[in-house]
Amino acid sequence: MFKKRGKYKTDIERLMEKSLQENNISFVYDFPIRVRGYRIDFLILPRKLKLGVECDGECWHVEGNNHDMKRDNYIKKNGYILLRFKGEQIKHNLPNCIATIQEAIKFKGG
Predict the structure, then answer these.
(1) What's the Cα-to-Cα distance from 17 to each of 1, 27, 76, rounded to whole Å?
(2) Separation CA 34–CA 13 (nearest Å)
(3) Which residues lie across from 84 on neighbouring strands?
(4) E-only strand ranges, 1-110
(5) Cα 82 vs. chain centroid, distance in angstroms?
(6) Quick check: bond before 46 cis, omega within 30?
(7) Alpha carbon of residue 20 to chain centroid
């Protein structure tokens, strides 16, 4: 159902991973995007959906972060849709996050 790539999982990534598994949503954890070294926390399968889920910890991802904006633009230019969930959303409203992912899967035809 998932594949580890050696990246340390944060608490919010572990919560998301468990919930994806419980909801039978297949994924690859810490998926690499082409040559730039960018990675997506969770790539939802099948790969043809090009649907990624990012779990944003409060201390790492702040709005207006230039690195994140460049990274997101590169990933989007390669045809991916990224769903970003802040740590507080994952901790306190995980069912809503999963519902958003399920809707995106339906929209993308998965």
Answers:
(1) 10, 9, 23
(2) 22
(3) 54
(4) 27-33, 38-44, 51-56, 81-86
(5) 7
(6) yes
(7) 11
Tell me, what DSSP letter sits at residue 3?
-
CA-closest candidate to residue 19, choices 53, 51, 48, 46:
53
Proportion of the chain in helix, strand, coil states, percent, rounded to 5: 45, 25, 35
**Alpha-carbon distance 96 to 91, whole Å?**
11
Q: What number of other Cβ atoms are within 10 A of residue 10's Cβ? A: 16
pLDDT, position 72: 86
Report in angstroms the alpha-carbon separations of 24 from 2, 50, 63: 11, 18, 31
State the pairing for strand pair 38-44/81-86: unpaired
Blockwise average pLDDT, block size 10, the chain, 110 residues: 60 97 97 82 95 82 67 88 94 97 89
Scored b (16 or more CB within 10 A) or e, 87-101 reads bebbeeebeebbeeb
Angle between helices 11-22 and 94-108 (to 10 degrees): 60
Please name the amino acid found at residue 98. Answer: I
